[in-house]
Design a protein that fits this description.
230 residues, alpha/beta, Rossmann fold, 7-stranded mixed β-sheet, disordered N terminus, disordered C terminus, methyltransferase, rRNA (guanine-N7-)-methyltransferase activity
Length: 230
């Protein structure tokens, strides 16, 4: 599983982010660079950017996750941000939620290889069966899954009241908030806030939109209450 190029070099930032578990993260990177490419989970062009663009970018999310929290990672795909978060924070109770069977198999295999304690579930966040089956979490994470309003509709039902949805976003974060703020509130979310993770550690900190679950009922409850007032 030896990777070529930059992926095989453990950057100094990895030791800052992962501490004594940096070698576990390195094994994950090496596996992605070989089997991840072979199985179509990442593109060949991403190999030299695995550390900074994917693994470290995901792991610094730990700054916004409380100790011992239950976390649901929606649309885990190749494992982001859930697996780097699990490597960095063994104290967390993490569920990796992924709809595609081949990716579910990959996540289970890699979790076993890395010896990280996660639960892998197949399904979509918007499915009623998934919402009944999976206990709500303190934190729900999502990376490159959907626009903010749709993400809130899918993910907020999986967040406990006063818990937080953490959506990893890019340069469009502020525009998405401006466009979808009202929809997020209708769906039971608080004011979306932009946060930066990895400041002073990563050359490009991770942009996160944080949304607190303020509505205790299911999505749609806020809309029904609003209609009753008129």
């Amino acid at each position: 599983m030896e990777a070529n190029g930059e992926a095989s070099v453990v950057p100094a930032e990895a030791h800052l982010v992962f501490g004594d578990r940096a070698e576990v993260a390195a094994t994950f990177v090496a596996t992605l660079a070989s089997h991840g490419v072979e199985r179509g989970l990442i593109g060949p062009r991403e190999v030299d950017r695995l550390w900074d663009r994917h693994v470290l970018n995901s792991a610094v999310l730990q700054e916004r996750v409380p100790t011992g929290a239950r976390v649901i990672d929606v649309g885990s795909g190749a494992g982001f941000p859930g697996l780097p978060l699990a490597i960095a924070r063994p104290d967390l109770d993490i569920v990796l939620l992924e709809p595609m069977a081949r990716r579910v198999d990959w996540l289970a295999e890699v979790a076993d290889l890395l010896d990280v304690s996660v639960t892998v579930e197949r399904g979509r966040a918007e499915e009623k069966g998934v919402r009944r089956r999976i206990e709500a979490a303190d934190v729900v994470t999502a990376r490159a899954v959907a626009p903010l309003a749709r993400l809130a509709e899918w993910c907020l039902p999986l967040v406990r009241p006063s818990g937080t949805l953490l959506a990893l976003k890019g340069q469009t974060a502020a525009d998405e908030i401006e466009r979808d703020r009202a929809a997020v509130r209708r769906l039971g979310g608080g004011e979306p806030k932009i946060e930066r993770c990895g400041v002073g550690v990563l050359a490009t900190p991770t942009t996160v939109v944080a949304i607190e679950r303020v509505e205790s009922g299911a999505p749609g409850v806020a809309r029904r209450r609003a209609r009753k007032k008129h």
